[in-house]
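Dear support,

I submitted the protein below through the web form. The confirmation email said the job was done, but the results page showed an empty box. After a refresh the structure appeared. I'm attaching both so you can tell me whether what I see now is the final result or a partial one.
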Amino acid sequence: MDATRTIACLVYPDVMSLDVTGPMQVFASANVERQRQGLAAHYALLLIGEQAGPFATSAGFKLVADAPWGSMDPAGLDTLLVPGGSGVQVQMHNRSLLDWLRGAEPQIRRLGSVCSGALILAEAGLLNGRKATTHWADLAALSGYSAIEVQGDRLHTYDPTDRESAHLFSSAGVTAGIDLALALVEADLGRALALRVAQRLVMFLRRPGGQTQFSPMLAAPTGSVARLAELLEWIPGHLGEDLSIEALAEQAHITPRTLCRLFNLEVGMGPGQYVERVRLEAARNLLLDAQASIATVARLTGFGHPENLRRSFQKHLAVSPRDFFQRFG
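What the results page shows now:
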């Protein structure tokens, strides 16, 4: 019989409720799927706080800690998750918590953060010399720790094939914690069971950890540049056409130099990078819906040759188009 793994999640005042309940529900659902197969539950779930009892989340309702972390034997925990929330700033100055985390880290098989919980691990010095990510809104704060290699454009840093990142890892905002938990379940119990959990939760098996945090389609101008806004609305309907900088500048009736300046100012990336992201998103959607072959998808979305599509998928999603379709299509 498999040994039961204890999964603990920290709670504190003003914690983000979904950072806690999202990942923990994944582990709970894994237990349910095993029980459907006549197998014993694999995970024991535990909430720990500075003391046992209720803690008000940032949503206003309360989560109840089963035990104080100070009384826990870290060696008895398989995995500890540190969630984020508006209460993170207070916990970053909780010296007792930071000391406990430093002492617990070598004894716990897996220690990870969800969302801005990475700032607590960073303040404890546990992310020094490591790759880390967090919610995009907190990347600047995480970048203030010079010893951390911040990777903002990814969902999580967990990699079961790498000893260091399988031990200590971080994830991006809110729902990325669910992707992280599914990756942990897959590593523990196999892809088939993780797939059943994802299906029960009505979501993808899991988005690859290297996938970007948000869609380029959300990157609309923040200012009042009407010509650029109109161009961004025009691009998705013309992905198979020439979308070079010169062609885009002609469409927007501005010079290529002005186009590049406005894109970097208003969108945060160059026009070529933006077009690639939109093409990639369109290709993902076509593959998810099984609407066309990979070669046809490459042609329709402007990549031309399937090899160009493969390189873009590997660069931004860390997976090939074929593997992406087999996982999610």
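Response: this is the final, complete result; the empty box was a page-load delay. The mean pLDDT is 88.
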